[in-house]
TrEMBL record:
<dbReference type="GO" id="GO:0009279">
    <property type="term" value="C:cell outer membrane"/>
</dbReference>
<keyword id="KW-1134">Transmembrane beta strand</keyword>
<keyword id="KW-0998">Cell outer membrane</keyword>
<keyword id="KW-0472">Membrane</keyword>
<dbReference type="GO" id="GO:0046930">
    <property type="term" value="C:pore complex"/>
</dbReference>
<feature type="domain" description="Porin">
    <location>
        <begin position="16"/>
        <end position="326"/>
    </location>
</feature>
<dbReference type="InterPro" id="IPR033900">
    <property type="entry name" value="Gram_neg_porin_domain"/>
</dbReference>
<dbReference type="Pfam" id="PF13609">
    <property type="entry name" value="Porin_4"/>
</dbReference>
<keyword id="KW-0626">Porin</keyword>
<dbReference type="GO" id="GO:0015288">
    <property type="term" value="F:porin activity"/>
</dbReference>
<keyword id="KW-0732">Signal</keyword>
<dbReference type="InterPro" id="IPR023614">
    <property type="entry name" value="Porin_dom_sf"/>
</dbReference>
<dbReference type="InterPro" id="IPR050298">
    <property type="entry name" value="Gram-neg_bact_OMP"/>
</dbReference>
<protein>
    <submittedName>
        <fullName>Porin</fullName>
    </submittedName>
</protein>
<feature type="signal peptide">
    <location>
        <begin position="1"/>
        <end position="25"/>
    </location>
</feature>
<dbReference type="GO" id="GO:0006811">
    <property type="term" value="P:monoatomic ion transport"/>
</dbReference>
<comment type="subunit">
    <text>Homotrimer.</text>
</comment>
Length: 342
């Protein structure tokens, strides 16, 4: 009798075990991030004296995240991500005191063969395009292009944060070598007041050539003086081409503010050359600012560096940067750092 009950218990446990295994196979969750810290003398033209310090986010802004997907059948997956910035030099959360807990990404969405939709706080596709159009990648502090477009201390020329709140982002599947994204951020004010953001991006990749075109209109977000009254339209074209053994980069951005009438035009050239177990990088960018009641000013920023691959997840880097605002003295930064991906 006892043997019969034991066999019955094993049979009833099998369906539950199979269901649990099936559920596990249909969903996945990953924990990941980047820890990037550097040390050295640092100065930005027009922003005070040189300081000797340890800083977070040299080649990439440090962050950690949790992301996952669940297959709900019929070729549909539910996707989500929560990503938070961290200052490795002090252990402080966020890039600045006013950052939200999950300021990089906080979204849920759907992925199908017709494309992908995300809702929440989402990385601006235009920011991702700029990060892939220069040899220093997503480095807002050391990459000349990103410093001028997105860095607050270097007079950022693109309105809105690198991530948008209250966003809806649709990304198409690959159509040959092309991919498109259409996105918006709701201003969450009375309907018809016109405080939302809109943007679109087209990318092309064929192995050697990677190219981006993006346009966005920003009415709410960082650098917008009065939501609904101030606004900015920005247009970006950039990319890279891989030759035998080295890559060239080029980009151009135009940012046009409506209230007040201001314009910022930014051009950038760069190169990356394999050397030993790493890459030599060089980039130069210039921004010209013009507008009603403003003096014609220019900012020139250049950088050279070496990124050494110590392991598949760890890199060591050294970067020399020079920065000059036309109304201030030249400034220099020397960064020795480490980036670890987990």
């Amino acid at each position: 009798m006892k043997r019969r009950f034991k066999q019955a218990g094993m049979l009833t446990a099998m369906p539950a075990a199979l269901l649990a295994a099936n559920a596990h196979a249909q969903s996945s969750t990953s924990f990941y991030g980047v820890l990037d810290v550097w040390a050295g003398p640092s100065q930005i033209s027009g922003a005070g004296p040189s300081t000797l310090s340890v800083n977070s986010g040299g080649m990439q802004t440090s962050f950690w995240g949790i992301a996952g997907a669940e297959d709900v059948g019929q070729g549909v997956k539910v996707i989500y991500a929560l990503e938070s910035y961290i200052q490795v030099d002090s252990g402080t959360a966020g890039r600045a005191p006013n950052d939200a807990m999950f300021a990089r990404n906080a979204y849920v969405g759907l992925r199908t063969r017709y494309g992908e939709v995300k809702l929440g706080r989402v990385l601006d596709p235009a920011f991702l395009a700029t990060a892939q159009s220069n040899p220093f990648g997503g480095s807002i502090r050391l990459a000349p292009l990103l410093a001028q477009l997105w860095g607050p201390a270097t007079g950022r020329t693109v309105y809105g944060d690198t991530s948008w709140d209250n966003a809806i982002v649709y990304t198409s599947p690959a159509l040959g070598n092309f991919k498109a994204a259409v996105y918006g951020a709701l201003g969450e004010t009375r309907y018809g007041t016109g405080t939302g953001n809109l943007g679109a991006m087209l990318s092309y990749a064929d192995g050697a050539l990677t190219a981006f075109l993006s346009a966005q209109n920003v009415r709410v977000g960082q650098a917008v003086a009065t939501p609904g009254q101030s606004q900015q339209a920005s247009y970006f074209a950039g990319g890279s081409y891989r030759f035998d053994g080295w890559s060239a980069y080029a980009s151009y951005n135009v940012a046009l503010g409506a209230v007040p009438q201001v314009a910022a035009r930014t051009g950038q050239l760069g190169v990356s050359v394999p050397a030993g177990s790493g890459n030599l990088m060089a980039s130069w960018a210039q921004t010209r600012n013009t507008g009603d009641g403003l003096a014609d000013t220019r900012r020139n920023t250049g950088a050279v560096g070496y990124n050494y691959t110590a392991s598949p997840r760890t890199e060591l880097y050294a970067v020399l940067q020079t920065d000059r605002l036309s109304t201030a003295n030249r400034a220099h930064t020397c960064a020795l750092g480490m980036r670890h991906k987990f």
